[in-house]
Amino acid sequence: MKNILPNxxxxxxxxxxxxxxxxxxxxxxxxxxxxxxxxxxxxxIAYCGSxxxxxxxxxxHPNYDPVCLLNEAFQLNDKxxxxxxxxxxxxxxxxxxxxxxxxxxxxxxxxxMIKAAFSAGLKYxxxxxxxxxxxxxxxxxxxxxxxxxxxxPGEPGKLAVPGLKAAQYDDKVKLGKILKKxxxxxxxxxxxxxxxxxxxxxxxxxxxxxxxxxxxxADVNAQDEYGxxxxxxxxxxxxxxxxxxxxxxxxxxxxxxxxxxxxxxGRTILSECMADNKYKTLDKILQxxxxxxxxxxxxxxxxxxxxxxxxxxIKMLKLLVKAGYDVKSFHxxxxxxDFAQGKLKKFLRRVIQIxxxxxxxxxxxx
Length: 366
Known about the structure:
Layout: H1 6-15, H2 19-27, H3 41-48, H4 51-60, H5 66-75, H6 79-87, H7 92-97, H8 102-108, H9 111-119, H10 141-151, H11 154-168, H12 172-184, H13 189-201, H14 207-215, H15 230-237, H16 243-254, H17 269-275, H18 279-287, H19 297-305, H20 311-322, H21 336-339, H22 342-360
């Protein structure tokens, strides 16, 4: 039987949530490997929920940054652990930089965790992550309202909370009164944009409120921490062809939204549709006269190479061809025919052959 080394036993103890066993092993000289893939053990310490284990880890592993542990405590909604680390002087803003700590608080509906973060001095940049982007999926409106009151303190914050609810439920009359107050104190441009996003991403798109917010100066093309607009967000998180998503796209364009804006990874809404084979949504976007050239080439080649090779892909390729997309063009040394498989490859080859014949005959185009 293979002898398991103490360091390996320590890792196993943490993985299994055996805090007492882990503490004993550390006292006996075992240590966690901070290098390479083994570093993720530290994120699992929070699963043990043991302050004693955390204390001894920090004492015996001087190279370990407790900031990671504080971030993980928020990700796991462990208030006791988080407050303990904060009281030890761990910087809340550095923990936030490791990964947004407000998102999980809202997802869990943990008002206590939200208050703990802001009370510890969290400096929140609304551009980093706007939790109201995901209002439609949240059941914890109170937690969301708590965030709003901290992000927009004072009188604007007091107005933001009821404004959020009004935007969610498309209460144009109530929202109108709130917007007039915001305008009278010459404040609230960020709030107005946040409320617009909320209206656009609520469980049922609040069109009346969205239109009103546009009149009051909301940035229709505001983007979240990933660079997604409200429409982009909707397309990315919902299934293909959902009426709510298609309606949002209509409203977004009607209010002057830009369908061509790329996220921070360079993907557009078109790219998102292709990556997830969202045929109905892609068709809708093309009907809204989206610029087909806004679709990045990298996504195209990745899509061609992805599995499986099915009829949906050919249907989508037909949409691209009909919209005038140059399916034959190469990206550097990449030939699309080298990426496609099976029936898709045969269809693509036929499309390119037809195009070449038209060019030879002086017709051009597809």
